[in-house]
Amino acid sequence: MWLSAVEASSIPQLRRFAQGLLKDKNAVVAGLTLSYSNGPIEAQVHKLKLVKRSMYGRAKLPLLRQRLLHAA
Q: How far apart are the C-alpha atoms of 3 and 12, rounded to whole Å?
């Protein structure tokens, strides 16, 4: 197995990487096998951040809130 070979490696950074993969094995397997994606949510977050940046320093919270709700 690849992880066994890496754990026996003399490169400490590679060994730490392998240990991290083993520690998060369930998350790694789920990320590679499940069809779920947070892409649509990340797109909305990115869109709201762009609106926020475009309003930077120009408006107080009520106007910013109105713009964010309109953009979402």
A: 13
pLDDT of residue 42: 92
Residues near 17 by Cβ (< 8 Å), separated by ≥ 6? 6
DSSP annotation of 10: S
The pLDDT, as a whole number, for residue 11 is 92
What's the whole-model pTM score? 0.45
CB 18 within 8 A of CB 6: yes
Can you give the C-alpha Rg of the chain in angstroms?
A: 21
72 close to 48: Cβ distance less than 8 angstroms: yes
User: Would you list the domain boundaries of the chain?
Assistant: 2-33, 39-71
Judge whether 52 and 68 are in contact, CB under 8 Å: yes
Closest CA to 49 of 37, 67, 32, 33: 67
